[in-house]
Amino acid sequence: MARLHGRTAAGVPRWAVWAAYATTLTVLPSCVWRIAAISFHAPLLERSTEPAPGHGPVVFGGVWYVVALSVVSEALAYLAFGLVGEWGERIPHRIPVLGGRRVPILAAVIPAGLGAVALLIFPYALVMAGLGRMIDGAHRSGLVVHGWQSVAFVVAYGPLAAWGPLLGLLTVHYYRRRRNRAAHPGVDVVKRAQTTLPPSAPG
Length: 203
Description:
Elements: H1 2-5, H2 14-39, H3 63-78, H4 105-118, H5 121-130, H6 148-157, H7 163-183, H8 186-196
Helix pairs in contact: 2-3, 2-6, 2-7, 4-7
């Protein structure tokens, strides 16, 4: 599993690692739904040749835009591993010039915290969609689904509501762990020594 996200940083509990995995998985169902519905024309929504009233101009479109959007979304979700992995505390040596340097705490906490707040748009948007409204509160919907399509949409996009809270939880834990380590630098040294020492002989 470590090959997927790199080595876990010292002092990271198992729940935080699982939370990082859960963060990446919150995005995956919606990516699959989006690509299937729009790129491959799966019958997951009612199609229209014109944007819904109030949708605004369509700047980007096409199959590759949908795929690119999904890849970028998953890549952003993957960054949650930086809050539990060693590469989120020290820049990997393979990175030119900066490799090997420690990541400043706020350099990770500020973007992650702002991202967690911004991602709270998803729970709000899902509630508004359930009420048949756009994000601005107008009584119209940019998405038309019926019956089992509604179930598929909720299953695919519902997990996105957890993206922001999970990222916020990991951000707070990252900040507290790094600050505690800075205040007590000898703690990690002892922990690492304990994990590398062989067990003492009986008697």
